[in-house]
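Our consortium's second objective concerns turning raw sequence data into structural hypotheses that experimental partners can test. To show how far this objective has progressed, the report includes one record in full. It was chosen at random from the queue rather than selected for favorable results. The single chain below, 367 residues long, was entered without modification.
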Amino acid sequence: MSRWRWRGNIALLGVALAFFLYPLLPNDDVINSDWPAFATGARLIVADPGHLYDFDAQRRVELGVTGGRVLVTLGIHGILPFLAPAWVALIAVPFDLLGTDLGGRLWVLFGLLCLVAGLYLATRPRPPTAILPAFAAVPTALMMLNAQLDGIVALGIGAAVALRSRPYLAGLALGLTLVKPQLVLPVGFALLLTRKWRVLAGWATVGVVLLAATLALNPRWVLEWLPALSSTVQTGAREVSLPHFAVYLPAGLQTYGLIGLTLFAIADALVLAARRPTDFNAVAAILVIGGVVSSPHALPSDLVLVAVGLAIWGEAGWIEWLALSLVAIVAALAPAPLPAGLGIALMWWLTLRISLFRRGRVPASAQ
């Protein structure tokens, strides 16, 4: 390893350690993140599961979570609503029992640990330093500051990659991605098209278990959840995916536009992945990155899965990592539709590059 490579790894390790230390410092970012929404879901699924997606009930509970502070979000009654699948509320219960502040900090640390584990599993047998460019990047900071669930999704993807020689277990691992199922649509389509039935069976097994557990608490939650999801479709949201542009269509065409753009982006990922049928890492990377660009709802923090895709690929250099971090910064701060435009351009460039790449140099991860 060259001297510059060694120094670079030390710098990245320092950034990674800072991510883990930040949630332990005195600050109010736990309240200003999405954690209050998850804590609200946790409290409702225990005390009043029949009103899990009732915005009025969420408002009352969330005011207790935040100590009376009203949060600002686009058009949703001054609260951050709980819009995740009901089983996410169950996952959040033990954290909420520790209190809003301590539970929120541990929730953030849990997400970071899941991301580290997912990256490690996805990059084996490469050295552990291979995960540093992906972890010590701006998308990880956004995931941490927003207390988001992408670390769990990354763990599911990484474990599935590590277990690919044992298809049913790989499918069970993919069950973790069901905390944000909209981010892995190309993976599901690819498994169907290639008839990976054992992987799909493992994935479905987890889905059935989660569905049964939550339906026992509220048999109507799916019917209540789907309409609530429409509140995420907003013109001013900082989305980074192609389907977001459906919001600029006439009201009567938005649903059709959302479906059409989602299917187009999925098809694009599948076509690009099909160009590399013998390169598992390239195919997996394209499908993971394509999952973000084709998601009906993807925010700048979800770009952490683009980092996971690049880590799986293993050929990314400093240009790709720098571009990812720069786009993530702009997407987090700029008004819509710039985040979507930049996010789509970045992800299409990366997936096209991976699809066309031919090994003729030493992989960046091994330099």
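The partners drew two points from this record. The chain has a mean pLDDT of 90. DSSP finds 17 helices and no strands in the chain. Both points have been shared with the crystallography group to help prioritize constructs.
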